[in-house]
Amino acid sequence: MIKYSDILGLNARAQVYSYPYNKSSGKSKATSKLATKRALKKSQVPVPEIYARFLKPVDVVGFDWSSLPDAFALKPNKGLGGEGIIVIKKRALREVEGRLVKAKDEWITTQKNKVSAEDLNLHVLDILEGAFSMGNVPDIAYIEEYVGRHKALRKFTYRGTPDIRVIVFNKVPVMAMLRLPTKESGGKANLHQGAIAVGIDIATGITTKAYWHGEYIHYKPETKRKLHGIKLPAWTKILETAVAAGEAAELGYYGADVVMHPEKGPMILELNYQPGLSIQLANGAGLRRRLERIKDVEVHDGEHGVRIAKVLFAERFADRVKAEEGVKILNTIEKVKVYSSRRKAIIVRARIDTGAVRSSIDKTLAEELGLLTDDNILWRRRYAYRSASGRESRAVIGVTFKIAGRKIKTSASVADRSRLTTQVLVGRNDLEGFLINPTEFES
């Protein structure tokens, strides 16, 4: 169950994150799909190819629809909620002299409807008149590359193209979900129209739980295909692409919609500077706490941000492990197994301290385990601690340890604990699911 205090609400989203951390130029780009694609393409962030634009009605006159590839998507520039999109999957077949050939002016949509060039012309005119934009403001229509479905997701999707929504803040992907089109949603990956929201573990790219029509489900509707445990391909690349898109569009807090092209890999479909909050339900976790954890962190680049995300926001314990093992009770002093950079482990004494937010590890121990390499230092907290020699900075590194039979991947500050009886301190960020007995010590 999501803690109420961890939930990000509409007002906080706008006042604390969306408006303070997004430049006006970035918000302007995000409200226009074409402007977004121009900015991303300029920065070499992958996007579907644009085949044609319609700025005014005269552009429709004489347009040669037969010059397009067999598959494409016709979209409004400022459409909302997937409205006004027609996705063409293939050309219709026509019988000529006893054999079937591809028609030049008829196509089949992903919904298996037949449309003609005249139908498409009329739809473009509707878009230009603002039929699908907020307030019916005149819009622009465009035709882009058809992405299709990656083979890893094909059996979980009804006809349309699934996408991955990634919430990014301060160059760090903080939460993600897979949106699966259904028969009810008409093959569109839009939750309000009936698509399924599936939470994703940031560290592994494996789906965790699925949310549909106000409740958690285990299987794709009308099938026995499990929706948890799906391994998304090119997961690190997906996260890095989402971060790169925000840098290109000058956004600090946003949702990036990523699609997996079967051959070309991750592509950005669009950006949203006020992304919806149902992603919290899909993941069974609140955004507020995650955002606060990385609010003041100095992040160098997208690769660095993804590394931080995988350490901070990994699923702590699988539901199956919780059910099998129950709640563990820890003493004030416990033995923990700490893993080296080569995945070998040593057992040391650790203090369990709910008064500390973050876990900590002795500097000498971290060096012995090979954990102080540049690629394992997540960031440095400057002058954040007082010592006998004055204020000092500390490195924060990625650490994996096992306690009471549970392996935890987390971040830990590096400190001089040579004068203390324990080489590791376990803070409350890493104590979720445990009970602490303050009167008992390690036996």
UniProtKB/TrEMBL annotation:
Record InterPro entries: Peptidase_aspartic_dom_sf, RimK-rel_E_lig_ATP-grasp
An example Gene Ontology molecular-function term: ribosomal S6-glutamic acid ligase activity
Organism: Candidatus Woesebacteria bacterium RIFCSPLOWO2_01_FULL_39_25
Residue ranges of every copy of the Alpha-L-glutamate ligase-related protein ATP-grasp domain listed in the record: 14-295
Pfam families reported in the protein's UniProt record: ATPgrasp_ST
Record GO cellular component, one term: cytoplasm
Protein name, entry field: Alpha-L-glutamate ligase-related protein ATP-grasp domain-containing protein
PANTHER family assigned: BETA-CITRYLGLUTAMATE SYNTHASE B-RELATED, RIBOSOMAL PROTEIN S6 MODIFICATION PROTEIN
UniProt-listed GO biological process terms: SOS response
